[in-house]
Amino acid sequence: STRSFEDFYTFQYGSLALCSNQPAYFGKGTKLTVLEKDVTEPTLEILSPSQNELCKRNRVTLICLATDFYPDHISITWDLPELNEPTRIKTDTPVLNGHTKLYSISSRLRVPKSVWCNPDNKFTCIVTFGMENGTETYRRSIHGSQDCVKKTELVKKNNNTAKFVYLMFFGKSVLYGLLISVFMWKMKVSNVTVRHGDIPNVLMLKINNVSITLI
Fold first, then answer.
1. In angstroms, what CA-CA distances link 66 with 14, 33, 51, 74, 93?
2. Are residues 21 and 47 in the same domain?
3. Which of 146, 175, 202 is the last residue of a domain?
4. Which of 68, 97, 133, 206 gives the lowest tally of CB atoms within 10 Å of its CB?
5. What is the CATH number of the domain that holds 114?
6. What is the pLDDT tens value at each position of the chain, 215 positions in all?
């Protein structure tokens, strides 16, 4: 059996089952696990914010992934630059892959977009993993992107261009409609016939088969 590094504040006292990879809790302190396979160290990766977030939101998400490890004695923290704006961290519980019998875990860090778009800012994911003879610490870092502002501006420029093209075609459609209306009006006027009667001061107009007498 191995003793993990974790201290769990739990009210489960003296679990009776010590099956393979089933933890036993002793009061407010130590979690013990009987291993059914060799320890496998985690693989770390940090995923940068998506382009969709950068274009549409004021806050963006960085994701730290720790995959393919065993057992599930693990914790994730973040080392961040000094920020005046608040950050949000959400870490999931380890998930077991039923096929490989290995665990994975993710931690999401949300920061203002302006913080991520500063290349001087460094974001470090720190994973502490429980080994048979103690703990091991792993780090993975990523710097803010200096291209995200340019990409965001390019997307906005493309959107503005699309809006301009739409308005231009809409304006042409309206103008075309007006020209058709004027043309139809002229056609109606051209169908007007004028007849002089016996009385010079009487003018007969016939518009669309409707006779109008003007005196």
1. 30, 20, 23, 9, 11
2. no
3. 146
4. 133
5. 2.60.40.10
6. 333 334 332 323 333 344 445 555 555 556 666 677 889 999 999 999 998 898 888 999 999 999 999 999 999 999 998 877 778 999 999 999 999 999 999 999 999 999 999 999 999 999 999 987 889 999 999 999 887 766 555 555 555 655 666 677 777 777 777 878 777 777 776 655 544 455 455 455 555 555 555 55
Q: DSSP letter string over 112-173? A: EHHHHT-TT-EEEEEEEEEETTEEEEEEEEEEPPSSHHHHHHHHHHHHHHHHHHHHHHHHHH
Number of domains in the chain: 3
Q: Quick check: is 215 in a domain?
A: no
Query: Are 85 and 183 in the same domain?
Result: no
Model confidence, pTM: 0.57
65's tokens: 């992934």
- Residue whose entry in the numeric block shows the structure tokens 């993975």: 140
Rounded Cα–Cα distance for residues 31 and 133 (Å):
15
Convert 7-59 into a string of H (helix), E (strand) and C (coil). ECCCCCCCCCCCCECCEEECCCCEEEEECCCCCECCEEEEECCCHHHHHHCCE
> From CA 113, how far away is CA 58, in angstroms rounded?
5
Tell whether 44 and 32 lie within a shared domain.
no
Domain that holds residue 74: 38-146
